[in-house]
Specification:
The complex is a heterodimer.
Chain A lengths: L2 H14 L4 E5 L7 H4 L10 H5 L5 H4 L1 E2 L6 E4 L12 H13 L4 E5 L6 H8 L3 E6 L3 H17 L1 H4 L5 E9 L1 H5 L6 H8 L3 E6 L2 H9 L10 H13 L15 H10 L1
Helix pairs in contact in A: 1-12
Chain B lengths: L26 E4 L5 H14 L7 E6 L12 H10 L2 E7 L3 H9 L3 E3 L5 H7 L8 H4 L13 E4 L8 E4 L2 E4 L8 E4 L3 E7 L2 E4 L9 E6 L3 E4 L2 E4 H5 L7 E6 L2 E6 L2
Classes of the chains: A alpha/beta, B alpha/beta.
The structure holds adenosine-5'-triphosphate (ATP) and magnesium ion.
């Protein structure tokens, strides 16, 4: 959980840092990304229309109102998942590259079905989103396996660059052992950590308002996404919000007592 | 090549090749329907589930469990479907005589109905010698074949399956939900969290080594340990597993 939230914030973050970015919703039939990006009332044509040749790519791309460099390609609400074909997706990605897009973020649906496969097939780099729980980590592990065995890069004998993003992390619960810790997840998945996004009520607020949480510079989740984008662009940024907050001397002494 | 060999190399001892009997594991794709669209959909779903298994895996196409008329099956389409999904069809098993002719025309072998020879051989435990792979069916004097060794330096992920007809060395971790199989030994220079099966063809001298024993299953020549038995024995320690008198022992490496 947190893929669409992550796609919206990372694509916004890249655009805010001056990179021409497109974000594509591969979750055909559900359509969440346009809600989180607050463009749902501006959707005329969608990804499947472009693949079927019912509209041009330019007609379907929606320009983000907040930043210059960001465009959204929404999913269709009415179509079947099988509408996505390898050839169709490849054509759209090529065309986006020709239009000068530096980053194309593909928001994958859940699971390891056709839609997820289409979203990852052409990837150069992948941000694998995991929650700090055993079942989520297992799913991420499977996706990493598919990335390195079934993607275009894998077929060519190359490797997709992997990034691990842990989200909905609650340091207090991790410290109590109610959730996996960052180190545990990192170790199980043996993948370089791109960022840790804390569990934060600002995320829900942001998606209800249709503003990606990265714009909320006050919130921990917003800051953590900002750091993750900087790391994606090659900057060395220290991880934060990993440990429980110190609740003053008294509570610390108290905790040590027990 | 020996330069002293007789110039008229007799047909009995050719130098250019050697014929050896071999036992190789082969997956049987036992068909339950002649409706290829149904098969295609279900096979595709399987491919997404365990993609690694479908990478150039040789398969035998089994027709013995078909309830419908096997002649209704389009063998060419079936072969193409398998190839599209990364399988390599090598033979048919239990087909009609027309199908056998068609198989030959497609470059496939035709195996007789009934239990595969290989299957029985695996069940009866062969003597625990290194040469067992070449002993039973080998027509010529046994020279021990050094099984291939495969080294993998990336993690083996959940849902992946790796098989090596020799020794398998993994320089990373094996995830829970992954399965590694080898006819020989298995070395994991990371955490072993999935299933590891060594001595797959019955070699009881094969061993499983790992840096951190957190396995779901460890098996050697069909003798296995799971769950509590593994958790209670050197859990998360560097260990080796080996077989003594048909019993699996987990011992610390130190
Ligand atoms: N860091 C966070 N803190 C609190 N809530 C979060 C956080 N990240 C995501 N959520 C919430 O989790 C829910 C699912 O998030 P999101 O839609 O991003 O997941 P998804 O992986 O895209 O889901 P799906 O698989 O359905 O597409 C949303 O309600 C979102 O607000
Ligand atoms: Mg989503």
């Amino acid at each position: 959980m947190g893929k669409t939230t992550t796609s919206s914030s990372i694509s916004s973050g890249l655009a805010l840092r001056g990179h021409k970015t497109a974000v594509i919703d591969f979750d055909i039939g559900l359509r969440n990304l346009d809600l989180i990006m607050n463009v749902e009332r501006r959707v005329v044509y969608d990804f499947v229309n472009v693949i079927n040749g019912e509209s041009t790519l330019k007609q379907a791309l929606i320009k983000d109102k907040r930043t210059e460099n960001l465009f959204i390609l929404p999913a269709s609400q009415t179509r079947d998942k099988d509408a996505l074909t390898v050839e169709g997706v490849e054509r759209v990605l090529k065309e986006l590259a020709e239009l000068g897009f530096e980053y194309i973020i593909c928001d994958s649906p859940a699971g390891i079905e056709h839609g997820a496969f289409m979203a990852l097939y052409f990837a150069d780099e992948a941000v694998v989103v995991a929650n700090p729980e055993v079942s989520s980590v297992r799913d991420s592990d499977r996706i990493l396996g598919i990335l390195q065995s079934k993607s275009r890069k894998a077929e060519l004998g190359e490797r997709v660059i992997e990034h691990l993003l842990i989200t909905r992390y609650n340091p207090e619960r991790a410290a109590k052992g109610e959730m996996l810790g960052v180190k545990d997840v990192e170790e199980i998945l043996a993948t370089k950590l791109l960022g840790v996004i804390p569990e934060c009520e600002t995320v829900l607020k942001a998606s209800n308002q249709g503003t990606p949480v990265i714009y909320d510079a006050e919130s921990k989740a917003g800051k953590a996404y900002g750091d993750a984008v900087d790391r994606l662009l090659g900057k060395e940024v220290e991880h934060r919000f990993l440990d429980p907050e110190h609740r003053g001397l008294f509570s610390r002494l108290f905790r040590r007592g027990v | 090549m020996r330069s002293t060999s007789a110039p008229n190399t007799s047909a009995a001892r050719p130098e250019s090749f050697q014929l050896k009997g071999g036992l190789f594991p082969m997956t049987l794709l036992e068909l339950k329907t002649v409706d290829l669209s149904v098969l295609a959909a279900e096979l595709r779903a399987r491919v997404t589930e365990s993609p690694a298994f479908f990478q150039h895996t040789p398969v035998v196409l089994g027709f013995e469990q078909l309830k419908e008329d096997p002649d209704a099956l389009n063998l060419i389409q079936l072969r193409d479907l398998c190839q599209q999904l990364g399988l390599i069809p090598t033979a048919i098993k239990g087909g009609s005589s027309e199908q056998e002719q068609q198989a030959y025309a497609l470059g496939l072998a035709a195996l007789p109905k009934g239990k595969a020879k290989g299957a029985t051989t695996v069940e009866t435990a062969p003597p625990p010698t290194r040469e067992r792979r070449t002993s039973a069916t080998q027509p010529e004097a046994a020279t021990p074949t050094t099984g291939t060794t495969q080294v993998i330096d990336t993690p083996i992920r959940s849902g992946q399956q790796i098989y090596v007809p020799g020794d398998l060395i993994i320089l990373s971790s094996v995830s829970a939900g992954a399965e590694i199989l080898a006819d020989g030994n298995i070395h994991v220079y990371g955490a072993l969290r999935g299933r590891a099966l060594a001595g797959l063809q019955g070699d009881e001298t094969a061993r499983v080594f790992c840096q951190s024993q957190e396995a779901e299953l460890i098996a050697i020549a069909g003798h296995y340990l799971v769950d509590e038995d593994l958790r209670s024995q050197h859990w998360k320690a560097a260990t080796q597993a080996y077989c003594v008198g048909g019993k699996l022992i987990i011992a610390p490496l130190s």
